[in-house]
Design brief:
CATH topology of one domain: FAD/NAD(P)-binding domain
Distance between the termini: 23 Å
CATH architecture of one domain: 3-Layer(bba) Sandwich
Radius of gyration: 23 Å
Strand content: 15-25%
Helix content: 25-40%
CATH superfamily of one domain: FAD/NAD(P)-binding domain
Shape: globular
Number of strands: 20
Bound molecules: flavin-adenine dinucleotide, NADP nicotinamide-adenine-dinucleotide phosphate
CATH class of one domain: Alpha Beta
Largest sheet: 8 strands, mixed
Structural class: alpha/beta
């Protein structure tokens, strides 16, 4: 079979679009395959009411083009889904990317042909061959609906937040059930509550939500940032989460701070809003006692907002704060003061089944016109697991990863030559501001391919030794922290049967430095041939 492309990229979100831009600039023939009917990835699929970013827009955007970052005007501190989608569509148009993106095409398989040193990529529209195969399939793109018996019996509508109908959903006058209180549920609940006749929230684990204090972006502030955008980005990338240049980071320990001063600090960070809250002390995710002081502070806020003390108590989380991703909210807890909103605990008694009319929990039937699943994703590995990926000697990636994902730097995989993953397991990815994490990965991959081509190498592959050492290091980093203490999707704990392994690498700057060092040492840990 002839080689159709130098590179195939799977996915047209932030990662796939920028990958195409970089590879095309190197002169490669590239094809992007995207299952969706448009570009945008996350922001194409997640159209539920209230969907917006939780990293501020001035940070959560591409830095690769000075013109682009100067031209684009964000309207809010945290942009809404329609605005981010418009931005990504603008990027695709502005850089003439669409002509190499094939939409509505799902990649089903990618097999490495050793003799021809090529990837054979099977889509639902045919087969192509390419030298490089790059997975930009997204760490949170594989929506997860729990297997609740009797789904087919339910006469009402069901929707998943991550696969929201393009026409929107009119909840007016409807009795709505909503399952899940992670970031998606926390964003959707206040808006659905305002529209629906009645909303019942099924909560398995109470969640910590910190107000985002979302507001229109002042033109003065935006102008100010744009005047120093390059420095703003550089400082942001030096922070552990890859953003927040304008927010000084506390460098002190909660354990060495008195309780009154600690409470004042939490209040200050609460007012700052959003994910910054976890930066109040450097040992918040290291010391369980300090973490509990922050958790208690947030529980106090919940008690102060929710009028019914019993409801406030049920909404008050008990796990380590920050262990599951912190939610950033607009009026989440306040929503439970509305008369048309009800909270049902399904932590001890899970949802038993669907009925014709709604959901059953134990002996109680709840009647609904529509049920919303805000139940999350098979994160980091889900999209890759759903493609039949085979490396050298026909080794299946799914099999290789049966005890948990194994990568070198999250970028490369031993046994899978000329195969790259953007923001894959073993990289900071979901634990950081993802746009700079994506840019750093894409730049690394593009530079690597340019290096191979300029030196006449035809193949690159992570060595098993480098991969083993990296997997151990990723685990070791997590083991110093409180992250392994709860059932989070970072650990795969939301997917029945998924191996419990902490998947992201903690610390964006340390990671980026390591990637640069690997290059400086002649692609240390990779075999080039
Ligand atoms: P995606 O945007 O997920 O794109 C991957 C694409 O690959 C998808 O369009 C998918 O259809 C396609 N694809 C997958 N498999 C196949 C296949 N087999 N064949 C063809 N196509 C395929 N991160 C932040 O840092 N800050 C935020 O504020 C933030 N907010 C978020 C809000 C929501 C609601 C969600 C779900 C996630 C959020 N994230 C946030 C994480 C977000 O996923 C990333 O920031 C970023 O958008 C990921 O871009 P990506 O290109 O890597 O993946
Ligand atoms: P999530 O964080 O995994 O939350 C899923 C929710 O559904 C959890 O409350 C979970 O309970 C619950 N759930 C799952 N299965 C259930 C079942 N069978 N019965 C009852 N409850 C069930 O998913 P998400 O809210 O979609 O968010 C995923 C990630 O996407 C976020 O962490 C974030 O990284 C990103 N995101 C960001 C934003 C933003 O603010 N910008 C918005 C949305 C998503 P348990 O906790 O008990 O598992």
């Amino acid at each position: 079979m002839p080689r159709d492309f130098d590179a195939v990229v799977v996915g047209a979100g932030f990662a796939g679009l920028y990958m195409l831009y970089r590879l095309r600039a190197l002169g490669l023939r590239v094809r992007v395959f995207e299952a969706g009917g448009g570009v945008g990835g996350t922001w194409y699929w997640n159209r539920y009411p209230g969907a917006r970013c939780d990293v501020e827009s001035l940070d959560y955007s591409y830095a690769f083009s000075e013109e682009l970052q100067q031209e684009w005007e964000w309207t809010e501190r945290y942009a809404s889904q329609p605005e981010i989608l418009r931005y990504l569509e603008h990027v695709a148009e502005r850089f003439d990317l669409l002509r190499d993106v094939q939409l509505e095409t799902r990649v089903l398989a990618a097999h490495f042909d050793d003799a021809r040193n090529a990837w054979q990529i099977e889509t639902d529209r045919g087969l192509v061959a390419a030298t490089y195969c790059i997975m930009a399939t997204g760490p949170l793109s594989c929506a997860l609906t729990p297997a609740i018996p009797g789904h087919e019996e339910f006469r009402g509508a069901t929707h998943h937040t991550g696969r929201w109908p393009h026409a929107g959903v009119d909840f007016r006058g409807l009795r709505v059930g909503l399952v899940g209180t992670g970031s998606s549920g926390v964003q959707a609940i206040p808006l659905i509550a305002r529209e629906a006749a009645d909303l019942t929230v099924f909560q398995r684990t109470a969640t910590y939500a910190v107000p985002g204090h979302n507001a229109p972006l002042s033109p003065e502030y935006q102008r100010d940032v744009k005047q120093r955008y390059r420095a703003f980005r550089t400082i942001g990338r030096q922070k552990h989460l890859g953003f927040g240049a304008d927010y000084p980071t506390a460098g002190d320990l909660g354990s060495a701070t008195g309780s009154a001063e600690r409470a004042a600090r939490y209040q200050e960070y609460w007012e700052r809003g959003g994910l910054h809250f976890m930066g109040a002390f450097v040992d918040l995710m290291l010391d369980a006692q300090v973490n509990e002081t922050a958790a208690e502070f947030v529980r106090g806020k919940i008690g102060g907002v929710v009028a019914d003390a019993a409801v406030a108590e049920r909404l008050s989380p008990r796990q380590v704060i920050g262990c599951k991703r912190l939610c950033v909210d607009t009026g989440y807890y306040e929503t439970f003061n509305r008369e048309n909103v009800h909270l049902v605990d399904v932590g001890r008694t899970p949802i038993t089944s669907f009925t014709e009319r709604g959901l059953r929990v134990g002996d109680t039937e709840y009647v609904f016109d529509a049920v919303v699943f805000a139940t999350g994703f098979d994160a980091m590995t889900g999209a890759l697991d759903r493609i039949d990926i085979r490396g050298r000697a026909g080794q299946a990636l799914k099999e290789k990863w049966s005890a948990g994902p194994r990568t070198y730097l999250g970028l490369g995989i031993a046994g899978f030559p000329n195969f790259f993953v953007v923001v894959g397991p073993g990289s900071p990815s979901v634990i950081s501001n993802m746009v700079p994490a994506i840019e750093q990965h894409v730049d690394w991959i593009a530079d690597c391919i340019a290096h191979l081509r300029s030196r006449g190498f035809r193949r690159i592959e992570a060595t098993p030794e480098a991969e083993d050492a990296w997997v151990a290091h990723v685990n070791e980093m997590a083991s110093f922290t409180l992250f392994p203490t709860c059932n989070s999707w970072y650990l795969g704990a939301n997917v029945p049967g998924k191996p419990r392994v902490f998947m992201p690498y903690l610390s964006f700057p340390l990671y980026a430095a390591k990637c640069a060092e690997v290059v400086a040492n002649g692609y240390e840990g990779f075999a080039l041939g």
